[in-house]
Structures are given as C-alpha cells and as structure tokens.
C-alpha cells in the first residue's frame, strides 16, 4: 500500500478500536465496528490493487482542500513549475490542482503540471542523457519548491519532485551528496527565474486559480515575460 493508504488504515483501525471500547458505554453493537473495519480494509486493499491508490488520494485531498492555505500553496507550487517550464521551453500538456481533477484527466498521481517528457525519456532509454537537458528538467522539478518557499518561506510539497531528481542521479551512479548539491543549485536557478518574472508569475497564479486552459496561460505569459532563460 502507499503511505497515504497506510496512514488512513491506521487511523481507521484506531477509530474502529475506539468504537469497540466505547460501544458498551454508548450502547453500540460490536457488529457495527467489525463491519466498518472490514469494509474500510477491503476498500483500501481494492484501492491499492485496482486503483493504484487513487481512492486514498481523493479522500486525503478532499480534507486538505478545505484549507485555504493548502489550496494557495498548491496553486503557487504548480505555477512555479508551469512558469519555469515555459521559460526553459519544456512543453506543457496540462495541469491539475487536486486529486479529483487529476482523476478526471486520467492521471495516476494526485495532480500537478504535466510535461511532454518524450525527449527526456528517449535519452534516458538510450543511456545518453545530456547534461543540458537534465539541468533544464532539474530546474523545472525544483521550481515548485522554489515558488512555495518564496511565498511561504518554506515548502511543504515537492517530495515527488525530489524523488525524480534523485532517481536519475542514482541511475547515473551519483552520490546522495551530489543529489543535494544539484537540488540546491536547481532551486536557486528556479527562484531567480521566478523573481525575475514575478508579474508574470502572479498573473499565472490567477489564471490557474480560474482553471484557464494551457493555451490561455501561454498567452498571458507571452505578454508579461521580461527575462527569458538562456
């Protein structure tokens, strides 16, 4: 099971155990707790095996989405990815700001900006990943963390982004220290690009909050970009 599903199972089992202990006091039948526990465990098993954890992501996302702070962090994080990808000329194919939107779009993850990764995948499969292309993707992957840090002084998201960077470096036999240095470098590069185009970034955040399509987001950026990446 995913960590999200495991956490939900643990919470569910705790609540069911609590209901069994309090059942006699509240005059609840023990069958209620047993049936509820079996149903929840069955759901999480089906979710993991059949839906790749999408159900658990949806449940967690529903509760997280109730927080205005969480929604703000997500859109600013993803706008960072979008802006920097645009500046580095990495094609964007779509975006989703929560698990439900990702589910409707047929994505397996909980949301985010989707890129056309064909060039990267081809070079990885051929074992000939160029340093220039890898650097561009590193900056894009770390751009969400950079954007969130600029807005909130620290980032809560970005675990999956860091995993991508570390996985490719590990594949190329780089040490954890190399990964940390590359991560810090990429965050700094992304931060510089966002700060240099802050007006365009803020306009993009507003556009993504309104769920404008990628083509319209491109037009907004094209009218506001001041400094393009080289």
Automatic annotation (TrEMBL):
The keyword Protease applies. The lineage of its organism: Bacteria, Bacillati, Cyanobacteriota, Cyanophyceae, Oscillatoriophycideae. The chain crosses the membrane at residues 5-25. It comes from the Bacteria. InterPro entries: Peptidase_M41-like. Keywords: Hydrolase, Membrane, Protease, Transmembrane, Transmembrane helix. This is ATP-dependent Zn protease. GO terms for biological process: proteolysis. GO terms for molecular function: peptidase activity. It comes from Laspinema palackyanum D2a.
């Amino acid at each position: 099971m995913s960590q999200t599903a495991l956490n939900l199972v643990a919470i569910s089992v705790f609540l069911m155990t609590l209901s069994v202990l309090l059942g006699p006091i509240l005059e609840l039948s023990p069958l209620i707790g047993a049936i509820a526990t079996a149903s929840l465990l069955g759901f999480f098993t089906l979710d993991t095996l059949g839906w790749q954890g999408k159900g658990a992501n949806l449940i967690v996302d529903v509760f997280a989405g109730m927080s205005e702070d969480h929604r703000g962090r997500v859109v600013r994080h993803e706008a960072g990815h979008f802006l920097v990808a645009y500046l580095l000329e990495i094609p964007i194919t779509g975006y989703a700001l929560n698990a439900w939107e990702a589910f409707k779009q047929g994505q397996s993850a909980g949301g985010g900006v989707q890129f056309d990764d064909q060039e990267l995948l081809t070079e990885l499969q051929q074992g000939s990943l160029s340093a220039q292309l890898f650097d561009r993707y590193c900056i894009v992957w770390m751009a969400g963390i950079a954007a969130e840090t600029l807005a909130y002084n620290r980032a809560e998201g970005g675990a999956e982004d860091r995993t991508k960077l570390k996985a490719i470096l590990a594949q190329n036999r780089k040490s954890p220290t190399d990964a940390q240095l590359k991560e810090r470098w990429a965050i700094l590069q992304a931060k510089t690009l966002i700060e240099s185009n802050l007006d365009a970034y803020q306009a993009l955040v507003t556009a993504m909050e309104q769920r404008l399509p990628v083509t319209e987001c491109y037009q907004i950026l094209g009218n506001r970009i001041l400094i393009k990446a080289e």
